[in-house]
Each structure stands twice: as structure tokens, then as C-alpha cells.
């Protein structure tokens, strides 16, 4: 069993989804595809000559956040592995299985359609990571779950004690960062961009309507024009790693 491609989905309430789509396409130098899904709730961010790896989902309730889609040859096999490791099934449709990790993070198993070409770095940045914010009491188990499910990925401690990185094999476009947050916080997820120059990226995003929240070491917390949290991180946009 192997993951063939990955998508970072940005989830926003239907009332603000169009504004979110305008911002994220501008920020990533992409365009929004025609909507799919029973209610037109899904779209992907497309770039000329590349395969999409970021999507937008209109959600019916809640504030939104982010989730991962894993494209595989055998959805049932992937889902069965996740269930053995403690996940649970949320919904099951043709070509789609929605699951929930042991800590409560939603993710999807979907059919691979031959995606293989990463979108390029745009304006010195690339959306390449989904950060899972997990309280301390669930963090160790969540790290074990993702490390076990993605056994051929590189699972390792991050640059700070509260971080753990699950990095895909070369060619796959989205990595996972597990961040230990304060106890009592609900499990959530947000997208991260790797930026060659965080300050330049911040100014550009503010020009597109984003709002600065705070800066911590090698990352800056932002809110998009709809209020969704994301981070600009000082990682190499080509490799995803920290500069040496």
C-alpha cells in the first residue's frame, strides 16, 4: 500500500468560500477549477503544466480549517489500515472514504487519477504542508497513528520539542506537521506555506487582504480574508526543509 498523491484541502464555510477562493488562488498563482461534488462543494487550485495538490471545500457548518486527501490505488486497503491503527469511518461513497484519526482529525482516502507533477514555487513560496494542532494528551498517539499509516514516509522530531514532521517520499507535494498545543484545545488543522522570505511573503499576503497575527521564530501566523488561520514558514520552498 502506498500513497500516490496528496492534497491539502482548505475548508471554509459556504458563505465565505468565494472570498477564500479568490485569496488562495491569488496567493498561490493558480486558478480555481470547476466545482465538483453533489453540491458543488469541491474545487482544486490548478496551475498550467502541473497537477493540483491544493483544494477548497465549502463546508456546511463550523469555522473550517484544513484536511488531507490521500490518493491511493486501493481505497479499501488504505482505509482498513487506518482503522487497524485506531481511525474510524465517517462516511463512505464511491471513490471516497472520509475517516477520522484517533485524535479526531478528518482526512480522506480517494482514488488516484495519475497526478504526478507538482505546481511550481510562486513568488518565493509554496503551500506544501498541513499542520495538525493536537493537545498534549493526544499528541503521542497521533504521531504514532500517522507514522504507522504512512510507514514509507520519514517520521522524525521537528526543530522544536512541540513539533513532529511526517515527510513524504520525493515527488509527493504535501507533508504533515504535528504541533503540540495547549491542553483543552480541540484538534484542528491549518495550511502552511514554505517561504524563501517570510517578510516579503507577509507583505504580499497583506496586500491580498490577509491579516498578520503573530511571529514565532521561523514562522508567522496569518489569517486569510475570511478569518482562516495559516502560517508562513521559513522553510525552503523547493525541498520543504529548514535552511541549513
Please render the helix and strand layout as text.
Elements: E1 3-13, H1 17-28, E2 31-32, E3 42-46, E4 54-59, E5 65-72, H2 75-84, E6 88-93, E7 96-100, E8 106-111, E9 125-134, H3 136-149, E10 154-157, E11 163-167, E12 175-180, E13 188-195, H4 198-207, E14 211-216, E15 219-223, E16 229-233
Parallel strand pairs: 1-4, 5-8, 9-12, 13-16
Antiparallel strand pairs: 1-5, 2-3, 3-4, 6-7, 7-8, 9-13, 10-11, 11-12, 14-15, 15-16
Question: How would you sum up this structure, described in words?
Answer:
With 244 residues, the protein is of the alpha+beta class. The chain has two domains: 3-111, 2,3-Dihydroxybiphenyl 1,2-Dioxygenase, domain 1 (Roll), CATH 3.10.180.10; 125-233, 2,3-Dihydroxybiphenyl 1,2-Dioxygenase, domain 1, CATH 3.10.180.10. Helix content is 19%, strand content 40%. It contains four helices and 16 strands. The chain has helices at residues 17-28, 75-84, 136-149, 198-207, and strands spanning 3-13, 31-32, 42-46, 54-59, 65-72, 88-93, 96-100, 106-111, 125-134, 154-157, 163-167, 175-180, 188-195, 211-216, 219-223, 229-233. The strands form two sheets. Strands 2-3-4-1-5-8-7-6 form an eight-stranded mixed sheet, covered by helices on one side. An eight-stranded mixed sheet has the order 10-11-12-9-13-16-15-14. Strand 11 (163-167) and strand 12 form a beta hairpin. The longest helix is centred in the middle third of the chain and has 14 residues, at 136-149. The protein is globular and about 45 Å long. The model has no long low-confidence stretch (mean pLDDT 96).
Amino acid at each position: 500500500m502506498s500513497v500516490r498523491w496528496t492534497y491539502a484541502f482548505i475548508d471554509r464555510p459556504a458563505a465565505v468560500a468565494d472570498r477564500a477562493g479568490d485569496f488562495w488562488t491569488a496567493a498561490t498563482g493558480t486558478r480555481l477549477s470547476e466545482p465538483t461534488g453533489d453540491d458543488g462543494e469541491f474545487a482544486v487550485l490548478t496551475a498550467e503544466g502541473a497537477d493540483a495538490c491544493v483544494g477548497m471545500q465549502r463546508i456546511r457548518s463550523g469555522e473550517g480549517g484544513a484536511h488531507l486527501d490521500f490518493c491511493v490505488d486501493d481505497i479499501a486497503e488504505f482505509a482498513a489500515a487506518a482503522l487497524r491503527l485506531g481511525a474510524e469511518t465517517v462516511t463512505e461513497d464511491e471513490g471516497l472514504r472520509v475517516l477520522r484519526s484517533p485524535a479526531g482529525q478528518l482526512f480522506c482516502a480517494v482514488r488516484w487519477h495519475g497526478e504526478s507533477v507538482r505546481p511550481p514555487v510562486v513568488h518565493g513560496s509554496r503551500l506544501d504542508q498541513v499542520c495538525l494542532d493536537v493537545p498534549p494528551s493526544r499528541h503521542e498517539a497521533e504521531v504514532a497513528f500517522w507514522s504507522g499509516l504512512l510507514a514509507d514516509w520519514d517520521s522524525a522530531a521537528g526543530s522544536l520539542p512541540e513539533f513532529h514532521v511526517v515527510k513524504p517520499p520525493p515527488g509527493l507535494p504535501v507533508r504533515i506537521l504535528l504541533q503540540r498545543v495547549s491542553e483543552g484545545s480541540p484538534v484542528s488543522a491549518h495550511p502552511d506555506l514554505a517561504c524563501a522570505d517570510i517578510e516579503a511573503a507577509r507583505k504580499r499576503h497583506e496586500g491580498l487582504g490577509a491579516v498578520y497575527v503573530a511571529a514565532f521564530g521561523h514562522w508567522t501566523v496569518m489569517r486569510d480574508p475570511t478569518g482562516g488561520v495559516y502560517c508562513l514558514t521559513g522553510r525552503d520552498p523547493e525541498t520543504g526543509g529548514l535552511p541549513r
